[in-house]
Amino acid sequence: MKALYIASTGMAAQERNVEVISNNIANMRTTGFKRQRAEFQDLLYQAYRRAGSSTSEAGTQVPVGIEIGSGVKVSATSRVMSQGNVAPTEKELDLAIRGEGFFTITLPDGRTAYTRDGTFERDGAGRMVTVDGYEVEPGIIIPEDATAVSISRDGIVEAFINQGSEPVQLGQIQMARFVNKAGLESMGDNLFLETAASGQPQIGVPGMDGMGSLLQGYLESANVNAVTEMADLISAQRAYEMNARVISGADQMLQATAQLR
């Protein structure tokens, strides 16, 4: 009975849906996290009677055919790149992006990654790095005798070397934006990689060419809404239960057929 296999695809699809929702909920406190949404597509159809087929020599046609679908599949897990809330942290190297763009990060293997997580630190060499020690492009070094660091909205980094002296400019943070930012590949650790779907990065400075501005001493929270995720979770659970009921109903029908004398 095809209903068994059709309902099983529905259960498998909702299982994937719950996995996506659970990952969103698990990352509610992850800085710069962007929630995902499962997208579905129906599977192939078997046509028992095609619409428009001839029913007589006079040229009459079937207005509506008979098609039975094969179920459902998860076609994509699209990432929602909307702006998350911005919260103060009181750390001078914490940065939040208000608007479009990503920080550019140099990985140990030489590749460039992109992130919305502005939790930056200073390593032993004075370089501005992520919490994993990856250098923030274009390679800003903060002197060890700097008493304070100032980062403007357009990404200019300045350091105060001696109290009462004029600040010294250390460099300017660069950012990247993409034609299709939802097409970026997630690699974990709050990092994304460029793909053919995302397009090549457009490098610029904060506040120009469509780039967002920076907020020093702030971090962007995950754009996960707990109420929305719980509502989606309940819907997925009920859809899973209904598909399970279909399997149970089909089993009862097969059992009744097997008991015929």
Automatic annotation (TrEMBL):
Residues 96-159 form the Flagellar hook protein FlgE/F/G-like D1 domain. It is found in: Bacterial flagellum basal body. InterPro entries: Flag_bb_rod_N, Flagellar_basal_body_rod_CS, Flagellar_FlgE/F/G, Flg_bb/hook_C_dom, FlgE/F/G-like, FlgG_G_neg, LlgE_F_G-like_D1. Coiled coil: none annotated. Pfam families: Flg_bb_rod (PF00460), Flg_bbr_C (PF06429), LlgE_F_G_D1 (PF22692). Keywords: Bacterial flagellum, Cell projection, Cilium, Flagellum. One of its GO terms (cellular component) is bacterial-type flagellum basal body, distal rod. Residues 216-260 form the Flagellar basal-body/hook protein C-terminal domain. Its main location: other. The basal body constitutes a major portion of the flagellar organelle and consists of four rings (L,P,S, and M) mounted on a central rod. The rod consists of about 26 subunits of FlgG in the distal portion, and FlgB, FlgC and FlgF are thought to build up the proximal portion of the rod with about 6 subunits each. Belongs to the flagella basal body rod proteins family. This is Flagellar basal-body rod protein FlgG.
